[in-house]
Amino acid sequence: MDMGIAGRWALVGGASKGLGYGCAAALAQEGVNVVMVSRGREALEASAIKIRALRADSMPANSQNSLKNSPEILTVAADITTASGREAIFSLRQDFDIVVTNAGGPPAGDFRAWDRDTWLAALDANMLTPIELIKATVDGMAARGFGRIVNITSSAVKAPIDILGLSNGARSGLTGFVAGIARSSLAAKGVTINNLLPGIFDTDRLASNFATQAAKAGKPVEDIKAARIAALPGKRLGNAEEFGKTCAFLCSQHAGYINGQNILIDGGSYPGTF
Question: How confident is the model over 150-172, as pLDDT tens digits?
Fold first, then answer.
């Protein structure tokens, strides 16, 4: 399926690895020009090289569509959760047709241990930063008659986890904001705003969580991982590639009637009907 977004410009946060990388790679394979943002320059540049190679490998040998076959892959090594980081992004390029917001989740723990500064840091990263990115780009999208914003949040928005209170609170705040703004006059101007809620995906963050759990339990990491996988309906972890493909579809011309939604991607783990 041709997604109809070749030649568009996308901004993808947390793009050096994990789910952000999956989204950047999938968009690039659709011929989208991508500005990849992440804090670590070395990992970011390595990921950009991989995406350029993936795109080159997927090009038809005799294709005539230069837009689709030659997307630009640019990088900005910056902390997207800071004003200076966002300034670095928008000094490179002002206008984007697609924005994928993504920042690392706050630490787990007991809410009794979190002070005001801890809460503000979580809100800055997982609620206020996406809102700032939306505010900076959405009017340009509306003026051009096309825009796609996808916020990577968490399955914990749908099924909160007690030790992830910082994430539950900040991401739920973003969800409420999006529910309102997505249904504003922007919708009539070709702009959609949706949230992707990942469940258990095979990422570095998950591997780190497994290592922490293994250390606390005094068990091998392999045992912790195997037990978690056994509890999943599909008996496997999700992968960044399939997550990215879902994101690319939401950003496509074909998804213009999907708006203001929270799309859970968890392999069927959520036990509820709705």
Answer: 999 999 999 998 888 999 999 99
Global pTM value: 0.93
Three-state DSSP class for 255? helix
The answer to whether the CB of 168 falls within 8 A of the CB of 157 is yes
Q: What are phi and psi of 31, to 5 degrees?
A: 85, 15
- Whole-number Å distance between alpha carbons of 149 and 134: 7
Instruction: Round to whole Å and give the CA distance between 36 and 93.
Output: 12
CA-wise closest residue to 178 among 94, 107, 75, 259: 259
Rounded to whole angstroms, the Cα distance separating 174 from 150 reads: 12
- The pLDDT score that the predictor gives to residue 216 is 84
Q: What are phi and psi of 181, to 5 degrees?
A: -70, -30
Burial of residue 90, with CB atoms counted within 10 A of its CB: 0-12 exposed, 13-18 middle, 19 or more buried? middle
Residue pair 221/256 in contact by the 8 Å Cβ criterion: no
Residue 56: burial class (beta carbons within 10 Å; 0-12, 13-18, 19+): exposed
Question: Residue 26: which of 64, 54, 49, 67 has the closest Cα?
Answer: 54
The residue type of 197 is L
- Interatomic CA distance for residues 175 and 169, integer angstroms: 10
The residue to which tokens 């739920």 are assigned: 172
Alpha helices (H) along 124-239: 129-144, 165-181, 204-217, 221-230
* Cβ partners under 8 Å of residue 134, min gap 6: 99, 101, 149, 181, 193
